[in-house]
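May I ask for whichever protein you like with its C-alpha cells?
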Amino acid sequence: MKLTRMVVFVGVATGWPAAAQSFDVSGNGLLNGTYYFRQVLYQVADSSGSLADAISVFGNMTFDGNGKYTMSGTFVDGAAGSIQTFSAVAGTYSISASGFGVISNPVSNPTSDSVNGLVSHGIFIGSSTENQG
C-alpha cells in the first residue's frame, strides 16, 4: 500500500507543470538619476594570456528607475590608438530587491553580454568576466 501511494505521488509530482521563475525587478528604482561610470575591457589574444586590446569607456549614465538607461562619454581603444566621443547609447537593467542586478553591456559584442553586480547606496559595482564578447 505504501509503495502504491509513493508511486502515485511521484507520478503526480513529476507531471505537475513547472512554472518558470521571472527575475525580481522591484529594485529598479535603486538606480535613478545620472551617475559617472567607467568600464575597462581587456581582450586576450591567445592561450598564453597575451593582451590583444585594452578598451576604456567613461562618462555619464542616466537611469530612469524603470529598467532603461542612456549613456554618453568617451571611448578609448588602446590597440587602435583612438579616442572617440559617443552619445545616446541606450540599454536596459534589472535590479532585484536585494540589490543584485544585471545591466546590458553596451560596449561588448555580442550585444547580449551583460554586467552582473550589486547596488548599494546608489552605486552599482559589477563585472562581466563570464561573457562571450
